Amino acid sequence: MNKLAQKNDLKHLFRDGQTIMVGGFMTCGTPEGLVDLLVEMNVRDLTIVCNDAGLPGKGVGKLLKNNQVKKLIASHIGLNPEAGQQMNDGVMEVQLVPQGTLAERIRAGGAGLGGILTHVGVGTIVEEEKQKIVVDGHEYLLELPLKADVTLLYASRADKAGNVYYKGTTRNFNPVMAMAGATVVCEADEVVEIGQMAPEDAMTPGVLVDYVVAKGGSK
Amino acid sequence: MIPNPEQAKTIIAKRIAAELKDGWLVNLGIGLPTLVANYIPEGVHVTFQAENGMTGMGPVPEPGKENPLIQNAGGQIVSILPGGSFFDSLTSFSLIRGGHVDATILGTLEVDQEGNLANWIIPGKKVPGMGGAMDLVSGAKLVIVATVHTEKGRPKILKKCKLPLTAHHEVNMIVTELGVMDVRPSGLVLREHHPDVTIEEIRSLTEADLIISEHIKPMAL
Questions:
Q1: Contacts of residue B126 in chain A, CB cutoff 8 Å?
Q2: CA-wise closest residue to A194 among A61, A1, A57
Q3: A138 and chain B: CB distance < 8 Å anywhere?
């Protein structure tokens, strides 16, 4: 099935109030063109799940700058001063989650699990209001799944069936977020025909991806 | 004589590098800990992990040779050495939480004599977030804190951390420009001191109760 789409044909997927996952780590592996589409559409009151707050003017930082984010679920916001400012001003709610726990909560959401147990955060404010479960004498926190209405995925290369290959450190949160989005849109640096990607190179299986757009492709 | 801040960084990085063993997988936090990579002793082969998804992390490339798709966890363009690998965040944090990382080296705002660490939030002032620090401190086999002994004259090694913790009872070792301390069940044990600094001077710059090791010796600088 050919999943190649034009970016502007995807506007029907986005609405105010949605939860959107955005791949990337300090914007390395973030689909900038799809973020631009959200900025252009000016959808508001979004809950964004991303490793971080991006950088000023880059990645999800563009959504923050445009005041489109109601809540940010991330592990680190220190490299984008706008995020701390909006949090202190009460404009945006920020839920900080240890990075490994964030990845596992997303995995739980995409993998049909009711949550995960982790020792990380025990004895810190991360444990507040969370259920503790003792297994074999060790204390764990029950961390709950995260899901999204839409995931914005990056690809170094995608075929038209939606199989995704990642170069360098661009992989980060992308594969796990591809599992946790009800709809998954991928922006690829390079799009190839079906059959042009070795199946072994499909780091994210195409069955998880609904739409593929080419980076910098025609609107 | 107390070393100045620039000397301090070099002393700390060198001393920690000497602690790393051949074959280890090591994660370096941002800032001061990254300097440790410059002082790995000859004959010791250490693999560095970047928690955003790489083992075999190499140095910052020469100008003109940067690949923007190879970055460290601080968003800095780095390189990957032969034998290295890239992976996703799930794999990266499975390595970390699963005890596959031999040592993690982190900077801190506060650390205390019970091995508690606080380095991710100053409520109401600065809230960068914990990033991967909580996972690293809870999961790595050896947790080494790299820190200057005092900040603006105030001790950083306390009886009890006042800031919200990054992890509870997880720190094994503290290295400053003035000495090397181990967190043991009996308390915080000073086992090495800067050769030009007396134990009494160190005590006066430390809020924590220091137990002086019977085998205390000068740090190799």
A1: 84
A2: A1
A3: no
Tell if the CB–CB gap between A104 and B90 is shorter than 8 Å: yes
SS3 state at B99: coil
**Three-state secondary structure call for residue A113:** coil
Tell me the CA distances in angstroms from B81 to A107, A171, B47, B71, B169, one per residue in order. 30, 18, 9, 13, 34
Lookup: tokens for B86: 């890239």
Q: Kindly determine whether residue B93 and residue A104, on different chains, have CB atoms separated by under 8 Å.
A: yes
Q: Of residues B172 and B6, which shows the higher confidence score?
A: B172
Q: pLDDT (tens digit, 9 = 90+) per residue, B154-174?
A: 999 999 999 999 999 999 999
Active site residue ranges of B = 51
**Tell me, what's the pLDDT at A217?**
65
Output the pLDDT for position A206.
Answer: 98
Residue A99 has phi, psi (to 5 degrees) of: -55, -45
**Can you tell me whether residue B188 is helix, strand or coil?**
strand
Own/partner pairs, B211-214, CB within 8 angstroms, 24+ separation: B211/B184, B211/B186, B211/B187, B213/B189
Q: Distance between CA A70 and CA A134 in Å, rounded?
A: 35
Q: Does A183 touch chain B (CB under 8 A)?
A: no
Q: Predicted ipTM?
A: 0.96
Contact by Cβ (8 Å): B178, B128: no
For chain A, give percent helix, strand, coil, nearest 5: 30, 30, 40
Contact A172 B52 (CB under 8 A): yes
Provide the CB-side half-sphere exposure for B112 (13 A, CA): 16
Dist CA A133 CA B124 (whole Å): 31
pTM, two decimal places: 0.97
Cβ-based burial of B153 (10 A; exposed 0-12, middle 13-18, buried ≥19): exposed
Query: What value, to the nearest 5°, has the Cα angle with vertex B201 and ends B171 and B185?
Result: 30
Tokens of B65: 């040779």
For testing contact with chain A, the best of B95, B121, B135 (most A CBs within 10 A):
B135
